Amino acid sequence: MALISFSLFGSTFAFGKSKNQVSTWSCYYGQQDKTEELARFDLVVLAVGGQNPVPLRKAGVKCLVYLSLGEVHADSPYYAEAAKSGLLVRYNENWNSWVVDIRRPEWKKMLFEQILPDALKAGYDGLFFDTLDSPIDMQRRDPDTYKGTERSSVELIKEIRKHYPKLLLCQNRGFEIIQRSGPYVDYFLIEGLSSSIDIGTQVRSDVTEKDRDFLISKARAALKNNRKLVVLSLDYVPFDDVKNIDKAYDFSRKQGFVPYVSTPELNQVNTYAPAP
């Protein structure tokens, strides 16, 4: 087995190359066929019912499918059942979705019997966990009412890992639990490491040094519990702003992360990537 080594947070690690190792990645939620563009990446995250993963997997690309663990969209085929079961606890006006009570056995039943099988049926290498921040935030807002939400989030990831031991798993954010969930996932995504775009105004801004330090510290903590964890970064920059795209790639790579830069809609593929 070939050995690889790299510098991360001032320390050098060397170990056998694992199945989750990648040097490039992309996130695309659009509906148009972008096989040619996406085939340039080692790893892609796709939407359910969007880009066909089959030709990409044939080309050797690792394909993960989007899975909302903490919210149900108002247009989702699962919305009516979630509402009937009393799982919906707060409306998210930014995305027209509802935060679910992740602690409830009804949610777990829906996930394992309907949502997960439906998401995976097109053929993927793994799952991309999104919206975990939403139920965790409910515990932060009202710790008495939503006590145990963080613990339930970790347990849910552990159960998914147990149920699908061969799948690649990626957790987006969820900083409060990543030290506990890190050993059960292959990738950890940090959104907004260097640059962000306001959804309402579409104005780009730099991430503050304080926020950067927080994000990096969380990645450092996660890596202590899983040395094979790959940290991905996703920054939002207009495609014509090459200067800030370059800065985002450069900063992420200096941390030992695998960067990608797009726009918040994630409905385009940005094939521009400055050389390391």
Name the quaternary structure.
Answer: single chain
- Strand and helix order: EEEHEHEEHEEHEHHEHEEEHEHE
Helix coverage percent: 25-40%
End-to-end separation: 25 Å
Provide the spatial order of strands within the biggest beta sheet. Answer: 3-4-5-9-10-11-14-15
The Cα radius of gyration reads 18 Å
Q: So what's the CATH class of the domain at 25-191 and 221-232?
A: Alpha Beta
Shape: globular
CATH topology of the domain at 25-191 and 221-232: TIM Barrel
| Count of strand segments | 15
Q: Which structural class should the secondary elements be placed in? A: alpha/beta
User: What profile does the largest beta sheet have?
Assistant: 8 strands, parallel
> Strand share of the residues?
25-35%
Number of helices: 9
Low-confidence stretches: 1-16
CATH superfamily of the domain at 25-191 and 221-232: Aldolase class I
Q: Specify the CATH architecture of the domain at 25-191 and 221-232.
A: Alpha-Beta Barrel
Average pLDDT for all residues = 92
Domain Glycoside-hydrolase family GH114 TIM-barrel: 55-267
InterPro entries: Aldolase_TIM (IPR013785), GH (IPR017853), GH114_TIM-barrel (IPR004352), TM1410-rel (IPR016062)
Protein name: Extracellular protein
